[in-house]
Design brief:
alpha+beta; 2 domains; four-stranded antiparallel beta sheet; 15 helices; 16 strands
């Protein structure tokens, strides 16, 4: 079962070769900015890249980030699967997005005395920095300088800022292409003729791209470093609309719940990891579910654990809808129809971790697996619930 999940993220090592970056003050394009593993500059010490250090001045951004999933990208679920010294190629391919700094990699691709490409120990590796995941430096530090978007504060305030580092402003920080570095893996794993991480292209083909509503518009409102997505109940609720129509008579109960992707700039959900479950069932007058009345449907792109088979793809493109039709013969004691929508943000991960633990996979770190499973088991939430009184 070695690295079944990681197959989805394995990338060509051609894209991980180190490259020179523009010095502070020089123009750089977004592709150059994201050439990995990311070089922060030889004069920068690892301790200067710790997020806590950045938070001394950028307090609001740090507080947002430390509660966001970017700060947890090298959590137990990933670490349970990696053996950087035994299998550095797999580790590097995952660090490509989960820990993209050069100093976050235990080993780097280089050459031996014979000129052969081999992985060599990284003398600048820092464990604490790796565990900080997609940290401040991953997006903002290049060639000993700090890069960011154009300043938005009024000129009077700009004059009072005396940063302890060089700074350069790039407009691409406010463009969707910036996020595509990790949220569009064209060289990643394909299933059924389609890649698994295709979020940027989904956005690009939508009305949001035409109207210049970028990823940052929703996931970083007001430049906040929240990065909220499918794990956030309010975020998801704001991106969907629900319309329920129901009828009942002495013989049957019928209802149609229409769920529209009215505010998500890409497919909902975009990845194979979440699953949305719609349930309809009848209850008695006290709210007890009546046996044999449950009907369910699922929204998502569900795949097998070996990533070989796509079971279904019912995701909702922008401004399209999914309809759940409930029809049940009227049963004795039926007093209510209940419709619920529950989101499982980590459904694939939960299946994966459970399977690895059950099989006692020797290539997995079981302590980290159990910790990851606890987290994924607690991430689901009830998004929508409607109770219809029957006549």
């Amino acid at each position: 079962m070695r690295a079944l999940l990681l197959k989805a993220l394995v990338l060509s090592l051609l894209f991980t070769a180190a490259a020179a970056f523009s010095a502070p003050g020089e123009a750089a394009d977004v592709n150059e900015h994201w050439r990995r593993p990311l070089e922060t500059g030889g004069s920068v010490h690892a301790e200067d890249l710790y997020p806590e250090k950045c938070g001394l001045c950028h307090r609001d951004q740090y507080n947002d980030w430390k509660n966001a999933l970017h700060s947890k990208s090298t959590g137990p679920g990933l670490l349970a699967q990696l053996h950087p010294l035994k299998d550095p190629q797999t580790a590097v391919s995952c660090y490509f997005c989960h820990a993209p700094l050069k100093t976050q990699n235990e080993e780097l691709l280089g050459e031996n005395a014979s000129g052969e490409a081999v992985f060599l120990p990284n003398s600048s590796y820092d464990e604490r920095l790796k565990l900080s995941g997609v940290n401040c430096a991953a997006c903002h530090v290049r060639s000993s300088g700090v890069a960011g978007p154009p300043l938005s504060m009024p000129p009077a305030r700009k004059q009072n800022i005396k940063a302890e580092h060089d700074s350069v402003q790039n407009v691409f920080f406010e463009e969707a292409e910036f996020c595509a570095a990790c949220h569009q893996l064209d060289n990643g794993y394909e299933l059924n003729g389609r890649i698994l991480v295709n979020t940027y292209e989904e956005w690009k083909e939508s009305e949001y791209a035409k109207n210049k509503i970028t990823c940052q518009s929703c996931h970083m409102p007001g430049r906040r470093h929240l990065f909220r997505g499918v794990h956030d109940q309010e975020m998801v609720k704001g991106g969907l609309s629900f319309d329920l129509q129901s009828t009942d008579n002495p013989e049957s109960v019928k209802a149609t719940l229409k769920i529209t992707n009215s505010g998500v700039g890409h497919f909902f959900p975009t990845y194979v990891t979440p699953l949305v479950v719609i349930s309809g069932f009848l209850t008695d007058s006290k709210g007890n579910a009546l046996k044999g009345t449950l009907m369910e449907a699922q929204i998502g792109r569900k795949v097998t654990l070996d990533l070989e088979t796509e079971l279904f793809d019912t995701r909702i493109p922008p401004f399209r809808s999914f309809e759940f039709n409930y029809e049940m013969k009227r049963v004795e004691k039926a007093g209510q129809l209940v419709l619920e929508v529950r989101v499982y943000p980590d459904e694939f991960y939960q299946r994966f971790f459970e399977s690895a633990l059950k099989k006692q996979d020797p290539d997995m770190k079981h302590k980290e697996l159990r910790e990851a499973l606890r987290t994924t088991s607690e991430s689901s939430y009830l998004l929508f619930r409607k109770v219809v009184e029957l006549r």
